[in-house]
Each structure stands twice: as structure tokens, then as C-alpha cells.
Design a protein that fits this description.
CATH superfamily: NAD(P)-binding Rossmann-like Domain
Largest sheet: 7 strands, parallel
CATH topology: Rossmann fold
Strand content: 5-15%
Strand order of the largest sheet: 3-2-1-4-5-6-7
Shape: globular
Helix content: 40-55%
CATH class: Alpha Beta
Length: about 250
């Protein structure tokens, strides 16, 4: 029986762990050949097995620092040489770096946060756009609830970068619509089992946040992956420039 992403090639940046790994796994189960990038979290043997399609197509794992343009360009060229076209691009790389108030924040930290969350999406998209499939290409940017509500204390730079990603998504959606490429964003709320919250959120804060979620539980990487799978499918061909909130009712856009 045909699968929704049969014959598609998908690239998920930061796909070695957390939300990225869940999205990559969902795509592979749906029939896509999956490539992932990683910097500090190489794919485990278990993930490589999960990313192997039912037809036996194994994943491609590329190590690079998306914030270093020369490294990214070289990796993009390698990908372009290996594959004729890219059907789905998920810009998933991102991070808080560290919490800081504006009063205490060095400009270097502000720039680092912007580079990780916004500049990487720009660079990856720009350098891979030449091989993006026309007429049915998909670009999905992973933003955050923080871009809607400002995030928790010390996350102003992170929230700003994710809010900017909304504008990047909508501007790019208009720019690429005539070429048949849709561009959308997902804005996850509190998603457990991710390096972000394991690193930056205390146990008490996690408990308080979960208690405030109307559906009564934290989100999971699979919750985000299911939305990404829909956006990547033909069923979402008329959807572009949209921000989909995945937060269990914490915020309504």
C-alpha cells in the first residue's frame, strides 16, 4: 500500500535527538528517504534503524555547524551531488544557549542566540533552495511558543529569535508560493524528553508548567512530528504561511 511520502527526500536539521529525531522517524515511516544533520548529537544506532524505510533506504547523516557558512555550503554541495532534488526541508536547529536578562546580556550572547535560531534557518534554506522540488516542495520551520508569549524569565533573546522566525516563514511563503513551495512553521509549547527542557528547565518549573496546560499533560516530540508529517504531505498543499501552535491549549493565536 502506498505511503504518503513515498519517493520523497526529506532533510531534518538537528535530527539526531528530540523533536528533530521524532520528525525524521515519522517521515521515514511514511516512506521518505531521510537525511539529518547533527553537530553535538549524532544519531544512535536505534535511530538509524528507525530511519530506515520499509523499502530498505537508509538515512544519510551529515555533521556540520549550521552557524558556520563555509561548513554549511560544503555540506549543501555534498547533499546536492548525492541527490538530484530535495522535497522536504525541516529547519529544526535551535536553542536557548543560556538564560540571561537583557540588563546582563552581552551582545555576543544575543548574536549567538540569533545565529542558532534564525540565521541557521536562513542559511540552510538559501543554500538548499536550488535543489528544492518545485510545484510540491515543503519547508517547515520549528519555532516555539516563546515566540508568542515571550518565554520564561531569561529567554528574551530566544523568544525574539523565534518570533522573527514567524516573519521569516510568512515572507518566504509569499516569495516561494509561485514556485509551488509551501512554507509553514510549528510553534511547540512544553515538549518533554528534549535537550532544551532537560538543560534549561528545573523540575519545579516543569511541574508548574504542566499543571497549567489545559489538556493536562506535557507535549511529546511525537505530537510535533504528527503535525510536521501533515504539512509535508499532499494533504497540506494549499497551506502556506501558517503558524501551527502545538501547546495543549496554553496559548491560542
Amino acid at each position: 500500500m502506498p505511503k504518503p511520502l513515498d519517493g520523497k527526500l526529506a532533510l531534518v536539521t538537528g535530527g539526531g535527538i528530540g523533536i528533530g529525531a521524532a520528525i525524521a522517524t515519522a517521515f521515514a515511516k511514511a516512506g521518505a528517504t531521510v537525511a539529518i544533520t547533527y553537530r553535538t548529537h549524532p544519531p544512535s544506532d536505534e535511530l538509524v534503524t528507525a530511519l530506515t524505510t520499509p523499502s530498505g533506504s537508509r538515512p544519510v547523516a551529515i555533521h556540520f555547524d549550521a552557524g558556520a557558512e563555509a561548513d554549511l555550503v560544503a555540506s549543501a554541495k555534498a547533499l546536492s551531488c548525492r541527490f538530484e532534488k530535495l522535497d522536504i526541508l525541516v529547519n529544526n536547529i535551535g536553542g536557548l544557549v543560556r538564560r540571561s536578562t537583557i540588563a546582563d546580556m552581552p551582545y555576543s550572547l544575543w548574536r549567538e542566540v540569533m545565529a542558532v535560531n534564525l540565521d541557521t534557518a536562513f542559511l540552510v534554506t538559501q543554500h538548499l533552495l536550488p535543489i528544492m522540488s518545485r510545484h510540491n516542495g515543503r519547508i517547515i520551520n520549528i519555532a516555539s511558543l516563546a515566540g508568542r508569549n515571550g518565554g520564561h524569565p531569561g529567554a528574551t533573546a530566544y523568544a525574539s529569535s523565534k518570533a522573527a522566525l514567524f516573519g521569516f516563514t510568512r515572507g518566504l511563503a509569499k516569495e516561494l508560493a509561485p514556485e509551488g513551495i509551501t512554507v509553514n512553521a510549528l510553534a511547540p509549547g512544553f515538549i518533554e524528553a528534549t535537550p532544551f527542557h532537560d538543560t534549561f528547565t528545573s523540575t519545579d518549573s516543569k511541574r508548574a508548567t504542566v499543571s497549567s496546560i489545559p489538556v493536562g499533560r506535557a507535549g511529546t516530540p511525537r505530537d510535533v512530528a504528527s503535525a510536521a508529517l501533515w504539512l509535508a504531505s499532499d494533504d497540506a498543499a494549499f497551506v502556506t504561511g501558517s503558524i501551527i501552535d502545538i501547546n495543549g491549549g496554553q496559548y491560542f493565536g
